[in-house]
TrEMBL record:
GO terms for cellular component: cytoplasm; ribonucleoprotein complex; ribosome. The gene is rplU. This is Large ribosomal subunit protein bL21. NCBIfam families: L21 (TIGR00061). The keyword RNA-binding applies. The lineage of its organism: Bacteria, Bacillati, Actinomycetota, Acidimicrobiia, Acidimicrobiales.
Length: 102
């Protein structure tokens, strides 16, 4: 059984017991969170319409707060000695999927 969840404007395919990296959620480490399922697949059964997913839940536990890869950027404008370097490192929550119910 697996599910496709929506979190932070992105979708992830998850299964029970997996750890997945999602955008920052409301909650601290160790707290339970509920994620929005978009589709649930259990063998030959596929639940994907809003009516079918009314009672479906995907729950998980926040394991840690992690940082993504470092992004290095550089902008310049020619002939003006105008240069700028910048960096960015996105913050994420690592969530362990505890249960998928349909």
């Amino acid at each position: 059984m697996y599910a496709v969840i929506a979190s932070g404007g992105k979708q992830e395919k998850v299964a029970q017991g997996e750890q997945v990296r999602v955008e920052l959620l409301d909650g601290d480490e160790g707290s339970e969170v509920s994620l929005t399922p978009v589709m649930i697949v259990d063998g030959d059964t596929v639940l994907s319409t809003p009516d079918e997913l009314k009672g479906a839940t995907v729950s998980g536990k926040i394991v840690a707060r992690v940082a993504g890869p470092k992004i290095n950027g550089f902008t310049y404008k020619r002939r003006t000695n105008n240069r700028r370097r910048y960096g960015h490192r996105q913050k994420y929550h690592m969530v362990e999927i505890t249960s998928i119910t349909s």
